Amino acid sequence: MAKFITSIELFNASETDYLNLSKALENERFKKNNQRHQHQKGVEYNVEGNITLTDVTDKVFKVASGIGKKYAFTIIKEKQIQESLYLKKAS
After folding, report:
1. Do 24 and 63 form a contact (C-beta atoms < 8 A)?
2. Domain residue spans of the chain
3. pLDDT, tens digit, for every residue of 34-83?
4. Alpha carbon of 29 to those of 4, 26, 37, 55, 62: distances in Å?
5. Which CATH architecture has domain 2-90?
């Protein structure tokens, strides 16, 4: 199962714009990540499942463009580290 972390910033956006973004992303099975630092702009969401990077990109593009503000986003695919491999390197 793939897991993605998505960071989205809306430019010249109001709090209402971000609330609308959150609602739309939650409708697409994204979960808000509340562990962001205060100095970071925008919002961060996690999504996981049998989903590809292309699927995530398409959903974020659809939702963000529907808000009506200029935006930027970054998507990171979380990679699982095999525990046995990590333990061998750490030893």
Report:
1. yes
2. 2-90
3. 765 544 567 889 999 999 999 999 999 999 999 999 999 999 998 876 66
4. 12, 5, 23, 12, 14
5. 2-Layer Sandwich (3.30)
